[in-house]
Amino acid sequence: MSNTTLPHLTATELRRLIGNREISPVELLDACIDRIERLDPSINAIAARAFKRARAEAVAAEAAVLRGDVLGRLHGLPIGIKDLQDTEGVLTTHGSPLYNDHVPTADAAQVALVRAAGAIVTAKTNVPEFGAGANSRNPVWGATGNPFNPTLIAGGSSGGSAAALACDMLPLCTGSDTGGSLRIPAAYCGVVGFRPSPGLVPMDGRQLGWTPLSVLGPMGRTVADTRMLFAAQLGVDDRDPLSRSIDPDAAGRQTLGDLGRLRIAWTTDFGQCPVSEEIRGAMRRQMAGMKHLFKSCDEVEFDFGETDRCFDVLRAQNFLARHRATYEQNRELLGPNIIANYEIGSAMSLADAAWAHDEQTQIFRRFQETYKSYDLVMSPTTPVTPFPWTDFYLAEMDGKPLNNYYHWLALTYAITLVTNPSISLPCGVDDHGMPFGLQIVGRFGGDIELLNYADALERACAGISELKRPIPNTDSLGKADPALKSIVTHPPKTIE
Known about the structure:
The protein is an alpha+beta fold. The chain has one domain (6-309, 323-476): Amidase signature (AS) enzymes (Alpha-Beta Complex), CATH 3.90.1300.10. The chain has helices at residues 11-19, 25-43, 51-67, 109-116, 159-166, 183-189, 223-233, 248-252, 277-290, 307-330, 336-346, 350-368, 410-418, 447-462; strands spanning 46-49, 78-82, 120-125, 137-138, 142-143, 145-146, 149-153, 172-177, 192-195, 215-220, 263-266, 296-299, 376-380, 396-397, 400-401, 422-429, 435-441. The strands form 4 sheets. The chain has an 11-stranded mixed sheet with strand order 1-3-2-8-10-9-16-17-13-11-12, sandwiched between helices. It is globular and about 60 Å long.
């Protein structure tokens, strides 16, 4: 099998071929590195590189195969790690000038887990500064462009991971999600992003350990690839007070749910989220194209209360905990999104916090009532087609101003508040020929069930031309204008 063919295979197929001694981890890694070096100048998805160490690990992985060792779930698979997650010996910048020379001495908990499962950390993937925002741009690495059109955003904050996957540069990548950071870039790049229930993937770096807003999770080109990585990320860690376990074998097993038994509730906006008329129309078309797959498929009204204000307060708490010292001592080195979040939070009171926690509880309870009549809830993942990367964020929609720089993410942060597992599945294209992401929300705690149904739906959609996953034409990728690295003001100080 040629090196040019390998990067296009799914992670599950690559793992099978490695286990059967049909391909070598070394030749797979070399093929991925070749593709990164050829394509990344066009999309700028990759941050720090760890190619030298990765090659040594690939040689060791090959030797383990030849010895007949018991192989881990991800043995020999190159992986990209989001640049918010510490990687021992590999530059981790958080997209911030404050960390442009930061080389951690230990892996974050979930990085340690995927390495223990045999994955080979090959590169870090680009993010917005400290993960704030859904446009993956920062002053250290520059911006990540969309694989379908590099002048447009790839989404964020896991934008580098999504773009790298879409271009077949890496078979697996990690991500994280507060207001949609796994789901939004997956939608914009035509890959899969899974936000699991809080606590399943240990998060040892969370400042507010008892809050469920932020989670870590997997990304892949298919549901099967995504759940294979998810199974490897599972684990209990005593540094994460929300940490809990589920059966990794059940999580990783390719089990297809019976779509014909499903009762689907769907919406364009959850009753209040800003969504463009174009995306509303695309959602209606996609649901019309798949409704025959289900037992029932109903457009349903939802009551999400004061979602925007609630998320404002809870999100602000996290930023106050994370950035107080930096804001007070090095404000000039922080980007506008971080400053805006911090200042929103500093103007709030304990009464605001108490109200927000109560409101989140009420939103949660009302939403769970839906599952007495339905099995899954579906919506668009994103409210607009990708916009130019030069825009920090979306300021208005259909001529109407938005509340703040993250208000356009309401479709995903509404689901963050209820904490149900959710996945963004590539589902055809929008009116502009860009990937359309379908957000599918499972029952509370129903992560494995959701993955089973998403796997089945992905396979069904693959046979419907209007609903199948779109693939970028990487042979004709151009360069963004202005250049994606034109915003770099504090380049990395430590490069392999």
